[in-house]
Design brief:
Length: 264
């Protein structure tokens, strides 16, 4: 039996996925496979309404790919079939996961680790954390979404600066650039991510899913297509039990209970 490299706990509607491959939680073929399995299970678990992704220990969220695996992938076509095709499928599934996701960055977030983090909806970094896409120093470049997901967050110029030079940026700079959404004191990222996720469990799940789908399409579709996508999603959400509960609670001056609402 392989070691467990992605631990899963669930509490009060929040799933915690912990990358655990000491000492730096690097991405291996097995870690990627386990991440995919956990996400598949969580996607159909109706008790889970938000997901937090974090790294075990205090040294790293994830310090990138396990370079020792590269030796068997350096002939033409091998890296795609042995690593990147499936890795991209799993990372893309995380990026378009139907439930809100929060990354808690408590240590080094490098290469593939930053690619995983950028698949999440919201990123929280501790104040001492360094973030980088250093692949260029190995003669390669980010190959599992870093090129475009990072660019969508921080813009073309800053993305090229990160990827061309491969040098780390600190957490305050990442916040200023929009790469992360909050910077918190050392040792508190996971607690803050759980707090954010807890708030999201009380939001309407169907509306969150549809809102996320439109936001995620913003960089892929033209404005007319986005308007149509938004209208279609709006029609679905306005006819949902969640909308009826929200309107009921508004007029009753009570807090809506979206947890018990189901959608078709």
């Amino acid at each position: 039996m392989p070691d467990v490299h992605v631990h899963l706990t669930i509490e009060n509607g929040v799933a915690i996925l912990t990358l655990d491959n000491p000492p730096l939680n690097v991405v291996t073929l097995e870690l990627t496979r386990q991440l995919g399995d956990r996400l598949d299970a969580l996607a159909i678990d109706d008790t889970v309404r938000a997901v937090v992704v974090t790294g075990a220990g205090s040294r790293a969220f994830c310090a990138g790919s396990d370079i020792s695996e590269f030796h068997e992938m350096m002939e033409p076509g091998q890296v795609v079939e042995k690593k990147l095709r499936r890795q991209n499928e799993i990372f893309q599934f995380l990026a378009h996961f139907p439930k809100p996701t929060v990354a808690a960055l408590g240590g080094l977030t490098l290469g593939g680790g930053l690619e995983i983090a950028c698949c999440c909806d919201l990123l929280i970094a501790e104040e001492h954390v360094s973030l980088a896409l250093p692949e260029i120093k190995l003669g390669v470049f980010p190959s599992s979404g870093g090129t475009f997901r990072t660019t969508r967050r921080i813009g073309i110029g800053r993305a090229k600066r990160m990827m061309f030079f491969g040098d780390p940026i600190d957490a305050p700079t990442a916040l200023d650039w929009g790469l992360v959404d909050a910077v918190v004191p050392r040792g508190t990222a996971l607690a803050e991510a759980r707090r954010w996720a807890g708030i999201l469990t009380r939001r309407p799940a169907f509306a969150l899913e549809l809102c996320k789908s439109v936001i995620n399409a913003a960089g892929d579709l033209d404005e007319d297509q986005l308007v149509q996508k938004s209208l279609t999603a709006s029609d679905r959400v306005f006819s949902s039990p969640e909308c009826r509960e929200g309107v009921r609670a508004f007029f009753a001056k009570t807090t809506p209970d979206f947890r018990i609402q189901e959608h078709s």
